[in-house]
Design goal:
With 181 residues, this protein is mostly helical. The chain has 6 helices and no strands. It has one domain.
């Protein structure tokens, strides 16, 4: 792979991930006075604010941020795959956006599980955001699997299910559309 293509891929993927984290933090109503939340808002506002004037939110979802994340991934797809086919760009951008959202949930659960072993300061800003971010997924699994002998094993099931969904998306995109994510 060309090193410049790699660099473009990483930079666009990181910025799209930050946009999607912003969107998810808004969705879970995380603490926006948290320093990490403030950092995310400050680095995404230059592109989100102008787009919000054109694209209003809908049903509590910040459509401007979502559209911007998908557009950034679409630009990345055009640069990395060197295609201008709108169908391929649209499919890949949608698929990669879904994969990125699932990855955000997956990594937040993994990091939260690892942090639970070392008992970090509960007032740490990162811990609060991770709890807020992973709660919408974990709450369903905690209903299915209550703690066993004081150990919460629901994150293991959540990780397995999220990875299954990722593999299923890859399989569908590869077999139905002939595109690898």
């Amino acid at each position: 792979m060309n090193p410049f293509v790699f660099l473009i891929d990483i930079l666009f993927q990181l910025y799209a991930a930050v946009l999607l984290i912003r969107l998810l933090l808004q969705w879970v109503r995380a603490d926006f006075y948290n320093p990490i939340s403030q950092f995310i808002v400050k680095i995404t506002n230059p592109l989100v604010k102008p787009l919000r004037r054109i694209v209003p939110g809908f049903g509590g979802i910040d459509l401007a941020t979502l559209i911007l994340a998908v557009l950034i991934i679409a630009i990345k797809v055009m640069a990395v795959y060197q295609t201008l086919n709108p169908l391929v760009i649209g499919l890949l951008a949608t698929g990669q956006t879904l994969m990125l959202v699932i990855s955000i949930f997956l990594y937040s659960i993994i990091i939260q599980a690892v942090l639970s072993w070392i008992h970090p300061d509960p007032h740490n800003p990162a811990v609060g955001l991770l709890n807020s971010l992973s709660w919408p997924v974990l709450k369903h699994f905690r209903k299915l699997i209550p703690p066993v002998s004081g150990m919460d094993i629901s994150p293991i099931l959540a990780i397995i299910v999220l990875m299954f969904v990722q593999y299923s998306l890859r399989y569908v995109f590869a077999s139905v559309f002939g595109i690898s994510l």
